[in-house]
Amino acid sequence: MTTEEIVKLAISSVLPLLGVIIGGLITFYIQKNSLGKTHAFEREKIRLDNIAKDEEEKFKAYNRILLNNALHKVWEWDPNKGGEIDYAKYIKYIRPVLFDVFHLLDKKVADELDFIEQVYERQHYEEDEQIDDRKDLSDSYLNIIAIIKQQFKNHRESNNS
Prior knowledge:
Blueprint: H1 3-72, E1 75-78, E2 82-85, H2 87-100, H3 107-126, H4 133-160
Antiparallel strand pairs: 1-2
Helix pairs in contact: 1-2, 1-4, 3-4
């Protein structure tokens, strides 16, 4: 056998092996890329499912707040004093619902809730209320109710479009 024949035999033996190796590498990279996209899609799907569950939980709580507000007259209008929160009813019917979903509340609702809690805490320690406390508490509570109603309106509009 001549050198030339040996080289031809070696090349003809190595070329198919080289083709298998290159084909295997291409297949590996394609599968890796495809698997990465599948994992990313699954992670995004789980994230969106969690957001939907959180929104559902928040809206159920918002529903309870609106119902409790209507059934128990948490905020009432007094011709002599103006609008006022009934603290006992707020504590019993509204506060627990808000704190159950505090981690899901919109920033504006959470800020209003924090304000109400700060005022009531200050009143507890000082054992007295300041001049604007009733109005401020009333405004904050009504803001919470207004924000919740707006959220429902936005939710309905987004579902109808």
